[in-house]
Structures are given as C-alpha cells and as structure tokens.
Specification:
The chain is an alpha/beta fold and about 325 residues long. The chain folds into two domains: about 5-225, 3-Layer(aba) Sandwich (Rossmann fold); about 230-295, Alpha-Beta Plaits (2-Layer Sandwich). It has helices at about 45-50, 75-80, 95-105, 110-120, 140-150, 170-185, 195-200, 220-225, 240-250, 275-285, 300-310, and strands at about 5-15, 20-30, 35-40, 60-65, 70, 80-85, 155-160, 185-190, 205-210, 210-215, 230-235, 255-260, 265-270, 290-295. The strands form three sheets. Strands 6-7-8-3-9-10 form a six-stranded mixed β-sheet, with helices on both faces. Strands 2-1-4-5 form a four-stranded antiparallel β-sheet, with helices on one face. It has a four-stranded antiparallel β-sheet with strand order 12-13-11-14, covered by helices on one side. The longest helix is centred in the middle third of the chain and has 16 residues, at about 170-185. It is elongated. The structure holds adenosine-5'-diphosphate and magnesium ion. Magnesium ion binds next to helix 1. Magnesium ion binds near residues 46 and 86.
C-alpha cells in the first residue's frame, strides 16, 4: 500500500526583500494525520502555511496539497482546504450565527442554517450564538474561527497557532476539536510554539528553524532524541568545573555553566539517568550541591540542541 500525502512540499522558497523566510521547505504529511509544525518566532511557520494555502506564491519549489499542484491548480487546492489562525476573518459586528451562515452561503453549503447550528453546538457556542462576535472572549472567538473554517468540511485544515494566548480550558477545547477532526479523517496541519501542544496532538512533528524543516519525527522519536535536561546548583562557583565534568560523563553532552547563577546543566539522552544517581555521583566527586534536578527540555533547549549539535541524527 502506498501512502497518500495530503501535503507534499519540495524545496519551497519565499523571500521578503532581504529576508529569506523559507529556504527550501520540505514536508510530507500523510492523509488523515495531524502534523505539528513547531518553531520559534520567525522560523517561517506562518509563511509556510500561507504558501501551502495559496495566500502567497512561492519563489521556487513545488508542492501538492490534497493532490493538486499548489500553483497550477490553486483553485482546486482552495476548494479542498480551510485555513484559520492569526489572520482569520470573523466579523465582530455579526453574531456567531450570522458569521457561520455567511460562510456557509459564500461556500454554497447546502442547509446553511443547519450547518451553522451544528457547528455552534459542537463548539459550545449555542448560548452565545446570537451575540455579536466582538463580545466573545478570546477562547470563544478562536472557537468561532475554527467553526468558520469547518463550514465547508475541508479535506485538509491548516491552523496557524490556534491556541496562542488562550487560557488552558480554551486550549483544551481546541485540542479536542482537532482530535475529533482527525477521527473524521481530516488531515490537520497546525503550527505552534508549544512543544506540549504538538506532543498532545501531532502524529508527526516538523521542527522548523530559519526557514527549513530541521527535523521530523513522531513526538516519541523527537523526545528520545532530545532526552531530558539535568541542571545542578553548586554552593561555590569554584566547584562548577568539577560539576561540569560529572555532568559531561553522565549525560554524554557538553554542559553549559552559568557563573552568576552557579548552575551547570546539560541535555541528556540517557533515559536511565535518575535524580538519585545524579546526586550520588556529584556527591562522590565532592561537589557542594545546593540543588539538582532533571526536567524535560524547554523548546529553546530542543532547538539549541537539534540545530547546533551535528551528532544528533534523525
Ligand atoms: N510580509 C512580510 N514582509 C516582510 N517580512 C516578512 C513578512 N512575513 C514574514 N516575514 C519575515 O519572514 C520570517 C518568517 O516569518 P513567519 O513566517 O511569520 O515566522 P513564524 O510564523 O514562524 O513566526 C521572519 O523573519 C519575518 O519577519
Ligand atoms: Mg507565525
């Protein structure tokens, strides 16, 4: 059986004046899966989404979305997809219901009133349905956005940072909606700055760095690659080199010291490293310890590690 890709992009490039926002963007998203595009601000996530949704034209490269060529069959692509996110356009003067009906009519959906009512119910907006969208909370507004994107039942849905700035409850609602879409067979491509979000939702993660996909893999795969972060606080800055030696040996990666905070830390790929062992080894080496911990790496550390360490291979 051959995999059918909902999105298949090869070498997409986009330049804004001097800025090379995309420098060879490659991505393959199997149909019916959720792909999380992860990356720091400015990595090119939004540009990638805008290209893949035909809102911008690529300078070079090619892509197929829902089986259609992005440039030559742009209108077929547009019919197969929806996009919501940072630039979504629900009208604040209209009520939630009016917005959805308007979208339904624009897209010639049969039974626009029923479709609007279904979506309002599905996103918990029935009670607020007849209030102007401008009175909605951030979370409600975002849910309405998402509902608007689903009026047409797209085959591929693009979400650009759907939960940025939302409270945890609203974030959970969006996550649930994405899971439900996946169950219905919709392919979802979402960008996020949150590692946890990609972890919760994505079958595959594409880590973007400076206009490219630097690494791809399942969350499990990437985490195994990245490991956890070991950090210790010493009582005396003179002990930092000794602590660094111990960390170097235990983690297999070069530790970073901070003299001001008297800390030394390193990413570890050794899944068997435990806190007791870390403390024991430091103690045995005569390091005066104030604190020690093992925690999941932050997104910054993930990127630092994956974009600067050539030893890591996916
Ligand atoms: N319309 C534009 N004009 C000029 N520069 C842009 C424009 N859109 C994006 N950029 C630049 O392209 C790079 C990638 O931006 P973007 O795709 O928005 O990244 P992300 O969504 O990952 O934060 C950034 O350096 C950004 O400043
Ligand atoms: Mg963006």
């Amino acid at each position: 059986m051959t995999t059918t890709y909902a999105v298949l992009s090869e070498g997409l490039e986009k330049r804004f004046g001097e800025v090379r926002a995309l420098r060879g963007f490659d991505l393959a998203v199997p149909q019916g899966t959720v792909c999380g595009i992860l990356g720091p601000n400015g990595a090119g996530k939004t540009t990638a989404i805008r290209l893949l949704t035909t809102l911008l034209r690529p300078d070079a490269g090619s892509a197929r979305v829902a089986g259609h060529d992005l440039v030559r069959e742009a209108s077929a692509v547009r019919r197969a997809i929806s996009v919501t996110g940072q630039y979504a356009t629900v009208d604040g003067d209209l009520t939630g219901r009016q917005n959805l009906r308007l979208f339904a009519r624009l897209h010639r959906v049969r039974g626009p009133a029923e479709r609007a009512a279904d979506l309002l119910a599905r996103f918990g907006l029935t009670e607020a349905a007849d209030r102007p969208a401008s009175t909605y909370s951030g979370g409600m507004r975002r849910r309405l956005d998402l509902a608007a994107g689903l009026v047409r039942r797209p085959r591929v849905l693009f979400l650009d940072e759907p939960t940025t700035g939302l409270d945890p409850a609203s974030r959970g609602d969006i996550w649930e909606a994405v899971r439900e879409l996946k169950r219905d067979g919709t392919t979802v491509l979402l960008t996020t700055q949150y590692l946890e979000e990609a972890d919760q939702l994505a079958d595959d993660i594409a880590l973007m760095d400076r206009g490219r996909v630097a690494h791809t893999g399942s969350p499990h795969h990437l985490k195994a690659l990245i490991g956890s972060y070991a950090e210790v606080v010493v009582a005396d800055a003179d002990a930092l080199p000794k602590a660094a030696d111990v960390l170097d040996r235990l983690t297999g990666t070069r530790p970073a010291s901070d003299h001001g905070r008297r800390t030394v830390g390193a990413v570890t790929r050794d899944a068997t490293l435990t806190l007791p062992r870390l403390v024991r080894e430091l103690d045995a080496a005569g390091v005066p310890l104030l604190d020690a911990g093992l925690r999941p790496p932050t997104l910054d550390e993930v990127f630092l590690r994956l974009t600067t360490d050539q030893e890591v291979t996916t």
